[in-house]
Each structure stands twice: as structure tokens, then as C-alpha cells.
Task: inverse folding
């Protein structure tokens, strides 16, 4: 049975899209793609998480928790990496604060310009 299409389809012309080959199935010897994480939480928190998952439009509480953990954990790790200095960087930073270099010609010119503007 063939279905006839009526009217124009301005954005999608699905009748002319060639069929794509699907990628081959993963070999059975592959490592598991998931890991298990369990937590005991109070019933009140569970209700809040379930409501938040619904509001956020997730299909399950697990999807919501995984997404929230991914975002928050990535943010925490990134902020930690940004603020951490190794020993050499830390010493160089403190040294530059304690013994600043001489001002350059451009900096002296900027000081002079500022003094003219402020007075």
C-alpha cells in the first residue's frame, strides 16, 4: 500500500533521503559502558529530586541525577584545576608580588596620562 503525499514539504523531503547503513554492533568483549553508584537519601530529598526531574523534562530520575552529577562534578573539578598552582608556579607568583619589576616606558606614560586626567 502506497501513501500519497499532498502539499509541499518545505523543510523536509523525506522521500528522497537515501538509507544509511548503521554502524556494526560493538564486540561482546567490550568493557562495560556504565558503572553503578548507590546512595541512601531521606524520603523528602527523593521527592524533591523526582519533582526536579519532572520539571527539567527528564524521562527518568536516573537521567536527571546523571546529568546533574555530570554538570556539577565537571564544574567542581574545573574550578579546582584553575585555582591550583604547583610549587614552582606558587613561588614565582609570590616572588613577583614581593619584588615587582621596574615600570616600563608604556606604564610610566600611562601614569602620566592618568595624573593629567585626575587633576
Result:
Amino acid at each position: 500500500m502506497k501513501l500519497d503525499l499532498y502539499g509541499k514539504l518545505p523543510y523536509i523531503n523525506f522521500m528522497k533521503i537515501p538509507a544509511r547503513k548503521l554502524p556494526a554492533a560493538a564486540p561482546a568483549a567490550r568493557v562495560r559502558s556504565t558503572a553503578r553508584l548507590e546512595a541512601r537519601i531521606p524520603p523528602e530529598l527523593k521527592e524533591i529530586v523526582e519533582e526536579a526531574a519532572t520539571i527539567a523534562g527528564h524521562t527518568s530520575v536516573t537521567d536527571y541525577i546523571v546529568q546533574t552529577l555530570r554538570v556539577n562534578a565537571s564544574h567542581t573539578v574545573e574550578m579546582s584545576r584553575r585555582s591550583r598552582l604547583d610549587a614552582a608556579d606558587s613561588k614565582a607568583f609570590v616572588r613577583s608580588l614581593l619584588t615587582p619589576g621596574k615600570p616600563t616606558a608604556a606604564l610610566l606614560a600611562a601614569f602620566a596620562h592618568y595624573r593629567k586626567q585626575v587633576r
User: Anything to note?
Assistant: The chain has a mean pLDDT of 81.
